[in-house]
Amino acid sequence: MNADRAAVDLDQLRHTAAHLLAHAVVDLFGSDVQLAIGPSIEDGFYYDFRKPAPFVPEDLPRIEQRMRELVGKDLKMSGREVSRTEAVAYYKDRNQPFKLELIDGIPADEPLSFYTIGEFTDLCRGGHVASSKEIGALKLTSLAGAYWRGDEHRPMLQRIYGTAFASQSELDEHLARVEEAERRDHRKLGKELDLFSIEESAGPGLVFWHPNGGRVRQVLEEFIRGELRKRGYEPVYTPHVVSEELFRISGHIQSFAENMFAPIDVDEQRYRLKPMNCPGHILIYKSRPRSYRDLPLRLAEFGTVYRFERSGTLHGLLRVRGITQDDAHLFCTPEQLQQEFENTADAALTVLKAFKFESYHFSVATRPDKAIGEPEVWDRATDAIKRACDNVGLAYEIEEGGGAFYGPKLDINVKDAIGRDWQLSTVQADFNLPERFELTYAGADGADHRPVMIHRALLGSLERLFGVLIEHFGGAFPAWLAPVQAVVMPITDGQFDYARRINDTLFEKGFRSEVDASNERLQKKIRTQQLRKVPYMLVVGKTEAAEGTVNVRARSGEQRTMSLESFVAELAAEVAARA
RNA sequence: GCCGACGUAGCUCAGUGGUAGAGCGGCGGUUUUGUAAACCGUUGGUCGGGGGUUCAAGUCCCUCCGUCGGCUCCA
Q1: ipTM of this predicted complex?
Q2: Which of A12, A36, A44, A256 is positioned for an S-S bond with A252, CB 3.0–4.6 A?
Q3: Are residues A128 and A203 in the same domain?
Q4: Is residue A477 part of a domain?
Q5: What is the tens place of the pLDDT at every residue in A480-511?
Q6: What residue is closest to B65 (Cα–C1')?
Q7: C-alpha–C-alpha distance, residues A576 and A510, integer Å
Q8: End residue of a domain, out of A155, A179, A203
Q9: Packing angle between helix A2-29 and helix A59-72, nearest 10 degrees?
């Protein structure tokens, strides 16, 4: 109750701050600046402007300063209803085309209102704090381009983002959270920890996994393979380049072409880089007649697909053009749909829980307006998904009309260590592709039947998951995932041989370890490995070599001396438990 | 794709029209080190690519490439 109340206030406070932002801009730059909209948003507020000479970053401190002056004046916000005629006249006088368009878009039977704070009046439906004084702390955060009404065919405006809180301490906390997120940025850590790179000379959005990243990926892949084996999946491999005809049958050329790489013409034949794995898996299904006894057939592949994402949308590992999905396609009878969803949801939760996210939740997306297939089929499938969620025992929310045109889906979202939401797993029923490819199976009755297909990814894409995990763990991977699990540190070169023997033992036991044989003092070696976020450092000096022990320094700084056997046993247990 | 900012050594960054720099890293040496930075030396660059202005360009202009912040939040 209290939290709700506070959230509403924050929203109103920021909405008021947006008006003050416009007030300050008009004060400093004149009333010929054209105003668009200025709402409160999740972490603050913004206001969109059009101004002949664009704002420059140096303007922000000036605007912010002016806003503070306004806040300090204890200005009262007052609203009044206005007639449409008055509102239109007001904005015509002031040459404010965006405001006029907004008025035009408001239904004739809805009242219009103006809100005034200080000397600034704005068309606004209300929802404000009473006085500017309630804005205890504010900060303008960035300047960006934004299309009028988010439409790229309409004018580009300039958007000023800011945030505001009731007190300075709350603002400071928010800024500290932002800094923490920056510290965890996977692009920064990816470079510092030598995990991956994206090479200008190779092209944007294409990921190079360095050895340290490759080690993490290999662990993830082996983890998934093990789970899939237990759950009755079959491994398959399909080509990256296939005839365009395949994507014509699947419908991707017709509906997905703008996200596909351009065609490759070879020997009179036109090929495409695959943007999806499904058509390939379908060909395997179709390679021979199928019986109901073959179903469910579960075909899995770490399939790398290529999608042409617009250049401005690329973002580190989180949005790339070469994507490796931990993909699978399940071919089943309609009756098996619920069981398959249930198994998949369970598999997804099992896998995701290994990463120790803060929380997990399901989201069921139902039939959109434009959809293929009979509504009753959709209803049965959607009910099956809901029952599957119930049986797995995790609450779900309904995303009404959020499904794709070809079938309902189940998404699994997680919250990471700093409270951000990520959608990772997705399980998607498909009534469309079995039709397009005319898939059949022989039923017990001897007649041909149409199977249902399920697309599913547990991790989503390996690139994206890696980005999420880097940020979730802040680069400090747990021992089961860490690229280097232990570094053996001889204190002097008198212990080199002992250190190498320890390292050999760890290698033989299957661990990822190294010897730091550099000519450095122990302090420096420790510092170096702390910065690499290595889970364990095994310090070996004269004493350890004489006693056949290792001094184990954990990443936390905690130290213990033990036999190598004990360390091996503990690390093995930790890795096995994915602790 | 569009708006804006940015691009200097492997990394982090300084350098506002006049001889390209620092720290870290790398390499070589001295030191033989006990829990987050020993010391000395040395290596390192078509200043993102191309074009232009100028006696002179890392610096000013044009263009291309890449990166970053945005482009769903509705008066």
Answers
A1: 0.93
A2: A256
A3: no
A4: no
A5: 999 999 999 999 999 999 999 999 999 999 99
A6: A200
A7: 12
A8: A179
A9: 120
Say whether A133 is catalytic. Answer: no
Spanning CA of A160 to C1' of B20, the rounded length in angstroms is 38
Domain CATH code at residue A95? 3.30.980.10
Residue A307 known to be catalytic: yes
Are A380 and A353 spatial neighbours (Cβ–Cβ below 8 Å)? no
Does any domain span residue A390?
no
Nearest-nucleotide field for A41 (CA, C1') = B73
Q: Which domain holds residue A564?
A: 486-577
- At A149-207, the pLDDT tens digits run 999 899 999 999 999 999 999 999 999 999 999 999 999 999 999 999 999 889 999 99
Are A266 and A161 contained in the same domain? no
Q: Which nucleotides of B are covered by protein (CB under 7 A)?
A: 1-5, 11-12, 26, 29-38, 65-75
As for how many domains chain A has, the answer is 3
Identify the pLDDT of residue A7.
52
Q: Which residues of A209-246 are buried (b: 16+ CB within 10 A; e: fewer)?
A: beebbebbbebbeebbeebbeeeebeebebeeebebeb
Catalytic residue among A99, A298, A307, A555: A307
Is A325 catalytic? The answer is yes
Out of A48, A59, A327, A516, the active site residue is: A327
